Amino acid sequence: MKQTVLVSGGAGYIGSHTAVELINAGFGVVIADNLSNSDMSGVEGVRKITGVDVPFVNVDCCDKEAFSKVFEQYDFDSVIHFAAYKAVGESVADPMKYYRNNLLSFMNVIDLMREYGRHNIVFSSSATVYGEADQLPVTEQTPRKPATSAYGNTKQMCEDILRDSVAAYEALNGIALRYFNPIGAHPSALIGELPRGVPQNLVPFITQTAAGVRECLSIFGDDYPTPDGSCLRDYIDVVDLAKAHVVAIARMIDGKSKTRYEIFNVGTGNGTSVFELVRGFERVNNLKLNYKVAPRRPGDVVAIWADTALANEELGWKAERSLDDTLASAWAWEKHVRGL
Ligand code: NAD
Ligand code: WQD
């Protein structure tokens, strides 16, 4: 077995898929999560898919003393830090909840890595740091725009915390991965996204509407300056995204980083409209979705998709799963969750 990786927030959507891909690539995994936005089904799914009894620690990364026990108990040199709150709207209504959790948990990880002599960290950043970009597709050099939510601000601040920490502490290597719009589920349908309450994101809303849990999908705006009037996004398959973490960790372990702090976009390089996604979902899964056009959602950017050249060239990574397969996997997961 290769080295062990601590996956904080590993019971959640992206973390559980990443744990599977790490194990598939021969790494050991320890999952730490306080289950604030997940339950044990993610960890159990990882164990079932891989056949490995992955260790799980129920811990709040903001509780430094409790979290330090994980560093005492397990021998890992690398961390992938997913643990954060992620609801944009909630972060506007309750910014302190987001600053406290997302910043403190991350600062604790970095402090503990230093105290316990651990070296490599991948941070879950987001395309939200680009805001409404002046040029498309966005490259890693595209200037970040002032954040329009506390959530977005925590991503910018954590990127800066990582940059400054790597600059100051010679033993630390960091990679920030800027995810575009992660969607879909593992092909086994044993793990996937588990939104609590009414989904804010498009694909879970689509699958819940198809399952009859929601009556009707609202398409937020058909009068944008795009070919069909709806917004454009770069929808990245969650398994592809998970694999980007594996190559990022391996890059640092193998000493292949060009600089000790690096940033990579993780997307497909394609912009897909809301209408295209909805029609694709209907076609692939052979069903009709109840939807209507609704007013624009405040805060939405018109269009964003990734320039993925850097990740292609430096990480040797590119998105592989087709949008059709991803949309089929999202529906298979929803059916699994609903017992359909
Ligand atoms: P998720 O909510 O499914 O997973 C996050 C996990 O972290 C959850 O299991 C939650 O219980 C845990 N967690 C939160 N705070 C914690 C704490 N203080 N201590 C321990 N565990 C804690 O979300 P996800 O979609 O898997 O997102 C993972 C990361 O990726 C987050 O940092 C998120 O901001 C980032 N991200 C997500 C998206 C997206 O659209 N899903 C896009 C860009 C970036
Ligand atoms: C996608 C498109 C909506 C729901 C968010 C965060 C971002 C990142 C990913 C974490 C938009 C439209 C949506 C619905 C709709 N998360 N839509 N009806 O807003 O691009 O990004 O998740 O970092 O920070 O902001 O994703 O899935 O909410 O929306 O028409 O019911 O679908 O208007 O055009 P978004 P999304």
- Mean pLDDT metric: 98
The ordered string of helix (H) and strand (E) elements is EHEHEHEHHEHEEHEEEHEEHEHH
> Which sequence of strands runs across the widest sheet?
3-2-1-4-5-6-11
What is the oligomer described by this structure?
Answer: single chain
Note the topology.
Layout: E1 4-8, H1 13-24, E2 28-33, H2 40-50, E3 56-58, H3 64-73, E4 78-81, H4 88-93, H5 95-115, E5 120-126, H6 150-168, E6 173-179, E7 181-183, H7 202-210, E8 217-220, E9 232-233, E10 235-237, H8 238-253, E11 261-266, E12 272-273, H9 274-285, E13 291-294, H10 309-315, H11 323-338
Helix pairs in contact: 1-2, 1-8, 3-5, 5-6, 7-11, 9-11
Residues 9, 11-15, 33-38, 60-62, 82-86, 101, 105, 124, 126, 179, 182 line the site of nicotinamide-adenine-dinucleotide.
What would your notes on this structure say?
This protein is about 40% helix and about 15% strand. The chain contains eleven helices and 13 strands. The chain has helices spanning about 15-25, 40-50, 65-75, 90-95, 95-115, 150-170, 200-210, 240-255, 275-285, 310-315, 325-340, and strands at about 5-10, 30-35, 55-60, 80, 120-125, 175-180, 180-185, 215-220, 230-235, 235, 260-265, 270-275, 290-295. α6 (about 150-170) links the parallel β5 (about 120-125) and β6 (about 175-180). The chain is globular, with a radius of gyration of 19 Å. The structure holds nicotinamide-adenine-dinucleotide and UDP-4-deoxy-4-formamido-beta-L-arabinopyranose.
Q: Which features does this protein show?
A:
340 residues; alpha/beta; 11 helices; 16% strand; globular; binds nicotinamide-adenine-dinucleotide; binds UDP-4-deoxy-4-formamido-beta-L-arabinopyranose
